[in-house]
Amino acid sequence: MWSRRQGRLRPTVCGVEELRRRRREQEAALRKARREQQLVSKRLLREDAPEEAGEGCVAVILGEAEVQQFLRQAQRGAEEKEREGALVSLRRGLQHPETQQTFIQLEGSMRTLVGLLTSNQALLQLEAARCLHELSHSEQSTIAEACLPATSYLLTYLSGYSSDFIELCLYTLGNLIVESEAVRRQLLPQGIVPALAACIQSPHVAVLEALGYALSQLLQAKEAPEKIIPPASASSSILASTLPQHMLQMLQPGPKLNPGVAVEFAWCLHYIICSQVGNPLLIGHGALSTLGLLLLDLAGAVQRTEDVGLELLACPVLRCLSNLLTEAAVETVGGQMQLRDERVVAALFILLQFFFQKQPSLLPEGLWLLNNLTANSPSFCTSLLSLDLIEPLLQLLPVSNVVSIMVLTVLCNVAEKGPAYCQRLWPGPLLPALLHTLAFSDTEVVGQSLELLHLLFLYQPEAVQVFLQQSGLQALERHQEEAQLQDRVYALQQTALQG
Amino acid sequence: MQLPPALCARLAAGPGVAEPLPVERDPAAGAAPFRFVARPVRFPREHEFFEDGDVQRHLYLQDVLMQVADAPEKPRVPAFACQVAGCCQVFDALDDYEHHYHTLHGNVCSFCKRAFPSGHLLDAHILEWHDSLFQILSERQDMYQCLVEGCTEKFKTSRDRKDHLVRMHLYPVDFRFDKPKKSRSPASAEVPGDSGERSEGEAMEICSEPVAASPAPAGERRTYSHRSVSKLFLKHVLNVCSVLRILGCTWAAALLILNSER
């Protein structure tokens, strides 16, 4: 996927500023959609002929008569080239929403298209599938739902052999899946889950990426946690199928790992895991160790500066690991956590540094994993100390309030384990950093700082003196009127004065 | 953010677990007003914590991040013809040929030349259309298998199966790959456009060019793409039957025994 994308890069017509502005708008629209829980995105595969590339590819609006004419030509044209050409013209028209409307309102148009889709003329079939794909990409439900008569055929073709065609069918299905629950209510009984389970054995990378996309759309559905994922939902169940094992296989690091494919399946796993309906099953399939190894691999890729789009894969992997670590099943194997390798901590910090430079919005997700790793693990807390990672952690404090709170929480995880741990936290940069965070205005940040101070004073009493010498009391005073902080501020003041 | 230089070395070195420092908690640590408790945190699906990452994911899907543009042109080659006997299609791109081959010659019934989109449907077709034993057995038990992958239901008649497909699996009533058998004659003179088809003869049935002359009886045209499940079945039956004939059993009894083996 990465190289294919890079091969497709072309010089853009608009300026950089214009692109940035568009991207900001797009991002704002996506955020709004997410807050309303309406986050839906469709993927469009478009292959225009090269002679169009330079002309801005403006979609042509076709009128009713033209659509009819193209359909008739495609069905009954004398020459195969003529029929194919008619469908190509139709497809170009269908890139425009108005033509899409015209098409679906025309009686018999979908029936004709489905007829062409199932014809014995391979190239007509392909073009008909492309027309369907354009329609599936529409933002309007009525247009996407007009494609429903074709779905049984799209599913049938998934067990065929032509990889380009299968890829197209999968992307079309993925677009339709995400459209509405009505569509899914048809696709599930039609056997989409077994069809995907059979198709996932394809050796073609493009097919796998498309399958991952379609599956991720299915798993993102609102009703997925009740109706699609759990093993009890019989034939439409994801967890009861062989899909989870195959998904994990796609995520195993090694020469066969394809980043584009891995991204899709990592997101699939994330949607399953955060639904919290079958995580012990996944742990039983070795999800923790596979994901842990993948994390190491990602850190390695960062070090080799092969970082194009790495955060797209890192994000779901971090989320999967973090959520899985909260499962009780994690503790069962020999009474120890399945994920114990110290290298995971090293890899995580390499990724944190990468996020710090390239994608700071992902720092909280990385720190979330660090919290879940260290919370109940003396071993991982010891690793943080022995690998000298406290100072790099402190360097993240200024990034944002959310990040500060999480950094302080991780430090509390370490400190609460007792004197042996606090001894390694002091002397050092910790106390100055805490004095600095006490100057923040955010109540939660200050609150977490107070918790850490309390632990430090308790297990490392020598720190109190230094705290006093560095005007610690004045730093505390600033917050003694704050309702949420008062009690703790007072308690610390007492400790300091008595110490 | 500066990482210690030894960290990369640690990553490159083998797996290992740090020997934990001794844990020794004082009860005063969790005493009021302090409330910190070390605990792993879980976030459910729609939690706002995931907003940033989700937005990035969707930007990617919408292709903004990688600025996907048009696919490169298909590499063209000197024109060549399809090698399958009787097919005259010409191509100048390998992708087109691949798709043509798989569509038209990939899963072809060696008896009637109908092409199917998958091996699964081809197998079902051969059994149901060309296997006389299937017909006999189907009088005793449900033999018509549901066409949806993963569904193990079987039916007495093809009509019952169609009803099941329509009612349970929401398939279209005129699903093209489930045509009921019309006549028993081999389809040497198949006309496109069976009764009931509304689109102009575009079902996946015969090769677009007429097959010149069948070069050999169907049974000998065994290429990897032409399945003949019933030939093996027949051989198996014949073996069993010869044994049973030696033992003095009748043909019907032989079938009963065979049936119970399935």
UniProtKB/TrEMBL annotation, chain A:
Q: Where is the IBB domain?
A: 1-52
Q: Any idea what this protein is called?
A: Transmembrane and coiled-coil domains 6
**Which keywords does this chain's UniProt record carry?**
Transport
Q: Which PROSITE patterns match?
A: IBB
Give this protein's Gene Ontology molecular function annotations: nuclear import signal receptor activity
Recorded name of the encoding gene: TMCO6
User: Which GO biological process entries does UniProt record here?
Assistant: protein import into nucleus
SUPFAM superfamilies membership: ARM repeat
The organism encoding this protein is Papio anubis
From TrEMBL, chain B:
Q: Which InterPro entries match?
A: ZNF511, Znf_C2H2_sf, Znf_C2H2_type
UniProt region (Disordered), positions on chain: 180-204
- Where the record annotates domain C2H2-type, the positions are 82-105, 109-130, 146-169
SUPFAM superfamilies in the cross-refs: beta-beta-alpha zinc fingers (SSF57667)
Full protein name: Zinc finger protein 511
Organism whose genome encodes this protein: Papio anubis
